Amino acid sequence: MVRDLTALTTDMSLQEAVRIFSMTRVTGLPVVNDKQQVIGFLSEADVIGAIMPRSRDMSGIFLSDFGEIARKMGQARELSVGDYMTERPVTVTEDINLSTVSETMLMERLKTLPVVRDEKLVGVINRTDVCSKLMEDREAI
Amino acid sequence: MTLNPSVDKIFRIPGFKLGTFNNASEVMTQPGGKGINVAMMLNVLGHDVVAMGFAGNGPGRMVQDVLREVGITTSFTPLEGKTRTNYAIVDSEAGTVTQVRQDGPSVTPSDLEQLRRTYERLLDSAEMVIIAGSLPPGAEPSFCAELVRLAVHQGVRVALNVRRRVLAAALPAKPFLTEPDLRSVEKYNEYDVRKHEGRVSLVRELARDTQLAVVNAGSEVLLVSGEEAYSIQVPACELLGRIRLDDALIAGMIDSAIAGGAVSEIGRRGVAATIAAAASPTGQFASREDIEACIERTEVKPLA
């Protein structure tokens, strides 16, 4: 677990969120309320999805509405984290074992899992941590 | 709370000479800033610590990585600029420590607001807040005062180890413990702090607005709390320890205050922590056993 409490709040703009992603070099962050409880998760994919809404045509080819994209890019300051985050994200507790974390990340296609104690954020587990730990365990075997 | 953290590079150069080529016998690179030093010491003493403040690029990442590696939780507000690097040259032959400091990256009103909001959220789980060190460019003393007010409002005790302007702004919010940063200071308010009498006047003045006022002059530590007033002599410390003596004092006092120690005991443990830290190889990590072993070397006297 990375003992870091960097988090977003629902009223932050997507622009601010992206700035924090960039400065902290992460691909997503938990969203917390004023009691530090995890209420959502915003990833880079959520931001891209917010700015570039896509639909498929009859043959399954993606269609992009460039007018809409331009409008949303211009509005990035007004788009809020709360509107585009994943609500009720998957979280884990500190005592979770490695195999459950690995399985959860694969099954849910998650790169980062918030770690909570009494619902409050106490850190995150990311794929790099899991890979490192798996290698350590392999060496131990 | 370290609003202006740093990476400290400490060079041991026996016989250091100005204006010429010098060879370092040892170079140490450590996270720095007074708040971070206190956090690391409290962590060694077994406290759950969250280190927060501003962290920029480059050295700022190293600071956070090291803190997390030793088991400290981090919650830094990211900045665009680079976290500063401070330098200290320790010359054991001349008995001197030469320090070079940078200002650090500037912060914007938006950065300050983001930090304030993070701080407010974390106050809910805090037993005590320690705000120590300098302000980065862009942060006014009133911001520090606001942090003290928010904590006191929530019933969280605050310890302050900051410079005069910041302390003056924060005192009306009634912090629990105040210790002015007297580095490179000769006069504080109207008091000549090079003299014992001046330091006594200062600590008594500070005690009007704080539960525990502390003045550390290196060779002696003065404490006043209400009617209680004490003086503790500090034995001469090894050079490296002098760099962080003040931080060890704060950590030792906080450790004792959290345990419910009496005023004289808080002072003794603070001074014992400085003696122990000065003797440690890295100059900052005194264990609980080390502090216990140094308690006998401290002598508390009532302050006249």
Account of the 3D structure:
The complex is a heterodimer of chains A (141) and B (304). By secondary structure, chain A is an alpha+beta fold. Chain A has one domain: CBS-domain. Chain A has helices at residues 14-24, 44-51, 66-74, 81-84, 98-108, 127-140, and strands at 28-32, 38-43, 54-56, 62-64, 86-87, 92-93, 112-117, 120-126. The two termini of chain A are 22 Å apart. The model of chain A has no long low-confidence stretch (mean pLDDT 86). With 304 residues, chain B is of the alpha/beta class. In chain B, the strands form four sheets. Chain B has a seven-stranded mixed β-sheet, sandwiched between helices. Chain B has helices at residues 34-44, 59-69, 109-123, 141-153, 164-170, 196-206, 239-243, 245-258, 263-279, 288-294, and strands at 6-12, 26-32, 50-57, 73-82, 84-91, 96-100, 128-132, 157-161, 177-178, 187-188, 191-192, 212-216, 220-225, 228-233, 300-302. In chain B, α1 packs across α8 (245-258), α4 packs parallel to α5 and α9 (263-279) packs across α10. In chain B, α5 links the parallel β8 (157-161) and β9. The mean pLDDT of chain B is 91. The interface between A and B is medium-sized, with 17 and 20 residues.
Short description:
The complex is a heterodimer of chains A (141) and B (304). Chain A is an alpha+beta fold. Chain A is 40% helix and 24% strand.
The CATH architecture name of chain A reads Roll
**What is the total tally of β strands of chain B?**
15
Instruction: State the name of the first-level CATH class of chain A.
Output: Alpha Beta
Q: State Rg of chain A.
A: 17 Å
Secondary structure topology:
The complex is a heterodimer of chains A (141) and B (304).
Chain A: H1 14-24, E1 28-32, E2 38-43, H2 44-51, E3 54-56, E4 62-64, H3 66-74, H4 81-84, E5 86-87, E6 92-93, H5 98-108, E7 112-117, E8 120-126, H6 127-140
Parallel strand pairs in A: 6-7
Antiparallel strand pairs in A: 1-2, 2-5, 3-4, 7-8
Helix pairs in contact in A: 5-6
Chain B: E1 6-12, E2 26-32, H1 34-44, E3 50-57, H2 59-69, E4 73-82, E5 84-91, E6 96-100, H3 109-123, E7 128-132, H4 141-153, E8 157-161, H5 164-170, E9 177-178, E10 187-188, E11 191-192, H6 196-206, E12 212-216, E13 220-225, E14 228-233, H7 239-243, H8 245-258, H9 263-279, H10 288-294, E15 300-302
Parallel strand pairs in B: 1-5, 3-4, 7-8, 8-9, 9-12
Antiparallel strand pairs in B: 1-2, 5-6, 10-11, 12-13, 13-14, 14-15
Helix pairs in contact in B: 1-8, 3-4, 4-5, 8-9, 9-10
